[in-house]
Amino acid sequence: MPADPDGGDSIDRRETIVRRLLQRAATGIRRSQRPAPEVPFGRESDPNLEFEERQKGSGIAWLLGALSFFMIVHAVWARLAAS
Questions:
Q1: Pairwise CA distance, residues 13 & 19, whole Å
Q2: Where are the beta strands (DSSP E) in the chain?
């Protein structure tokens, strides 16, 4: 076996450092496990489920709003064209 140029003490020190690093890696950093927040949409797979109730019927509201707006604009335009 070839002789260690740094001496035998260096190998022991390196082995000690490696053992400590391996022990740290094996134990890891333990973080506290907090429970998930209790929300009704937290257990669903659809991320937009939170906003589902707010959007129900909004298509009909837009349709009725736009239709009434365009009917008023048409009535004003027809009256201006007739005069």
A1: 10
A2: none
